[in-house]
Amino acid sequence: MTSDTTARPMIGTDLAADMVAQAAVRAKKLQDETGVQPCLATVLVGDDPASATYVRMKQNRSKKAGIGSVSVVLPAETTTDELVAELTRLSNDPTVHGILLQHPVPEQIDERAAFEAIAPAKDVDGVTMHSFAAMAFGEPGFRSCTPGGILRLLQAYDVPLSGAHAVVIGRSPILGKPAGMLLLASNATVTYTHSRTQDLPALVRQADIVVAAVGKPNFVRGEWLKPGAVVIDAGYNEGNVGDVHAEEVARVASLLTPVPGGVGPMTIALLLEQTVDAAEAQTANR
């Protein structure tokens, strides 16, 4: 991988728009042939403004793709049991094909217990242990949407994955860990790093591909990178700032995802694509 003076941006917007357009064609075909409109249920606990904005954005994109949406908003003081009961109800509702629990949830809720209440067949956000196992073992199943979107972006930009050394910064169960698993399934050599990692810059400097998913603005610096590295900024912090210092990194990397307009659109596009996948599968199995 060779270095340019300025990294070429890996734009997710156009690719995501194509994915949504293709999902819309499939959704219309399913509805025309069976009378079934794919339906995504979004569940929001509390009134966090950023989360509410994300949910509205996903609902608007769903509408553009011909996907119906059901919105469930629960009070901030909702208990784990109450949330699990609601997710179980949606899992048993034959008119709902996909379920998205907006995260993070309030601190009193056991988030893992909530995720596991989502039926695997409707886990279109790829957050259950079933979905993670499918990603880890290379079996059919839903991908975590941000990692899955990252893989599609890397493929679209013809980034060689087989034999490449990928360093993933962050180990969250819905971003860092599945991103590493999907890269491993593509025959990359994967190093996971996290808050306890010693001499992080030295490890990052070995990477052909860097996935920054740490949740800290401007965390990854240009001097950490080897020239020509491909950098995926999966972070989104206040003020449209990612997890990498974009100005510094752009001077060293060959490819860099912008924030916004890089990974974010791919996440939503994959969510909608997988909702149509789920609707087709459930309709075929009825």
UniProtKB/TrEMBL annotation:
- Catalytic activity, EC: 1.5.1.5, 3.5.4.9
Please give the SUPFAM superfamilies that the UniProt record associates with this protein.
Aminoacid dehydrogenase-like, N-terminal domain, NAD(P)-binding Rossmann-fold domains
Binding-site residues for NADP(+), renumbered to this chain? G170, R171, S172
Question: Part of which pathway?
Answer: One-carbon metabolism; tetrahydrofolate interconversion
Q: Which reaction does it catalyse?
A: (6R)-5,10-methylene-5,6,7,8-tetrahydrofolate + NADP(+) = (6R)-5,10-methenyltetrahydrofolate + NADPH; (6R)-5,10-methenyltetrahydrofolate + H2O = (6R)-10-formyltetrahydrofolate + H(+)
Q: Which PROSITE patterns does this one have? A: THF_DHG_CYH_2
Q: Which residues form the Tetrahydrofolate dehydrogenase/cyclohydrolase NAD(P)-binding domain?
A: 144-282
Q: Which UniProt keywords apply?
A: Amino-acid biosynthesis, Histidine biosynthesis, Hydrolase, Methionine biosynthesis, Multifunctional enzyme, NADP, One-carbon metabolism, Oxidoreductase, Purine biosynthesis
Where do the Tetrahydrofolate dehydrogenase/cyclohydrolase catalytic domain residues begin and end? Answer: 12-125
What stretch or stretches form a coiled coil here?
none
- Describe its assembly: Homodimer.
Q: Which PANTHER family match?
A: C-1-TETRAHYDROFOLATE SYNTHASE, CYTOPLASMIC (PTHR48099:SF5), C-1-TETRAHYDROFOLATE SYNTHASE, CYTOPLASMIC-RELATED (PTHR48099)
Similarity comment: Belongs to the tetrahydrofolate dehydrogenase/cyclohydrolase family.
Q: What does this protein do?
A: Catalyzes the oxidation of 5,10-methylenetetrahydrofolate to 5,10-methenyltetrahydrofolate and then the hydrolysis of 5,10-methenyltetrahydrofolate to 10-formyltetrahydrofolate.
Q: What is this protein called?
A: Bifunctional protein FolD
Organism source for this protein? Answer: Kribbella lupini
